[in-house]
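queue> holo job accepted (magnesium ion)
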Amino acid sequence: MSPNVPYLDESQRTQAALRGASVLYTDLDGTLVARGGNVLADAAGEPSLVTAEAIVAVNRAGLDVVPISGRNRLQLRELTQLLGWHTYIAEAGAITVRGTGLTAEVALDTGEWPDGLLAQGITPFDAITMSGGYEALEAAFPGRIEQFAPWQLVREVTLLLRGCLNLAEAQTVLDTVHPRMDIVDNGPVRSYGTLTCRDMDPHAYHVVPRGVSKARAIELDLAHRGLSRKDAVAIGDSATDIEMASAVGAMVLVDNAFDSPGVLARLQQASPGLLLRTRAKRNEGWAEFARAWVAARAL
Ligand SMILES: [Mg+2]
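queue> job finished
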């Protein structure tokens, strides 16, 4: 069944939403970059300028693009600088960095954690690692959860895991430890690693301080800019990305999002905001969106 999300070029609401937006919050993997993390390729991974040309058009129009991803701060800094952008949001909404140089301003979000929860010299990542939450998940779901090597290293806030979990059940297990944490599904990944489950695709998960999310990070960033929801759009490919719709004027899903059972299940629930879809997949979908955005802004 195809969920009723209109294409960009058929919705009467597209023009107004894109015309009003000066900032784009973009997911990376499965959205801006092709398979293998390549931006100089088409959706199938063959060498192509399709996305690069769209990025140049957006930059030329003076529009602001903010990568928002589960990747860590160092990974995002390099990509953001390389593409000519300035602000990025790392670790699933937990870290916002404004600037790519030595004077960059870094804001860590620990959600609902009270001030003073972290002892001197202890990062949110340390607190989550020492909480016993991961060990509790491992004990409750043997063979179904592991650290997502090597990407779980060099992190400051979130614990990055790979597994085959029922998210509600996993949350119940996490709720038995302190401090309060949420487990967030960052969508399917390609390899099972050492997992033994085969009854579902492996997914990447983030364990985050309770309340931390991509949507909250966007709300905080827009407030910092003195902008409102209608000044922004977002684009992504996962069930988690759909939650960004609550923080922006329009949430665009690249076409490959609709291959994901998690996305289809999420679309059966109430929409957090205006959803639109591209006709092309992955980074070709991103380029399709970018062309529509630049055109709407030029009207
Ligand atoms: Mg993605």
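queue> The chain is about 30% helix and 20% strand.
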